[in-house]
Amino acid sequence: MHPKTLNMKKTTTLLTALFAGTLYTQAVTISLNNVGSEKFATSSGGTTSAPLTSGVGTGTATYTYTLSDLNIAGDATANDSITFELSVTAGGTATQVLNNIFDSTGARDFNGWGTTLNGAASPEDAVMDPGHSLSFAVTSSSVTMGDGGPSTITFDGFSALRHRNVNTPDDVGTITLADTSTLTLNGSGSTNTGDFQGFGTVTDSFTVLNDSTSTGNFRIMRLSMEFTAEPIPEPSSTALLGLGGLALILRRRK
Known about the structure:
With about 250 residues, the protein is mainly β. It has helices at about 5-20, 235-254, and strands at about 30-35, 40, 45-50, 50-55, 60-70, 80-90, 100, 110-115, 115, 125, 130-145, 150-165, 170-175, 180-185, 195-205, 205-210, 220-230.
């Protein structure tokens, strides 16, 4: 057999083995919207569940969310999942974090956060009074692959929030992002039904302050955030990539 023919067959065999291996190369962006204290939604598919909560009624509350039935591996099987923990901390003159459910029947489910009870209303009707603040951060995240393979997950950041009752020019708040830049949460032109306010960027954390000069209270209702998950190639697949590249180099030299 001619030497070139033999080398070509070896190269073909190596490349066949390369593409037969299990290769994960595509990072997946997971977008979450309407993340609240009792439930959340996603625009990236999957199944959401009610978060596990702790510390509600204290200075810091934590919420553990799980999004399952995802296809992160790109193998046409939706059996992957992510889990993350959201920390909400009271600040300013506030001493506690409260879930804002408003109505236990779900008739007016604002599903957000506050720092104090709203007068004589339902005990689940929580708002932020002037001088109160809430800080939000993701403290941990993990990914579980259905096939047991390794993967990484990165919290890209928060991108927006939804507020309610910022409906007059006298309701003034400030959003401070992780880089210390600030946005004004002002009621001019806002409605009473809850407005999304984009940050114009993504931020690892942020704080919302109801300014001490405000004449009213408001609620933080929902959050928007993003994660990036990426499976890690198996060692055997990585080795095959190297062999395949070597085979191509050898073939070009012949």
